[in-house]
Amino acid sequence: MLEGQVAIITGSGSGMGRSSALLFASEGAAVVIADMARLRGQQAADEIKASGGKAVHVTCDVMEQEAANE
pTM of the prediction? Predict the structure, then answer.
């Protein structure tokens, strides 16, 4: 359903954000995991990739303008 789409999900290293990232990936979207916690974010990305999905993790605080621009 979401093949060819990219989902950028903030706070996706845990909780509702992680659940959302897993759901989007299961529907075929490539997912950008944006989270301040490096380990949790990378684990979420790894889980998506292990199940055949596409994901990358970006450690950042999107509340900071400079981090969002990177």
Answer: 0.86
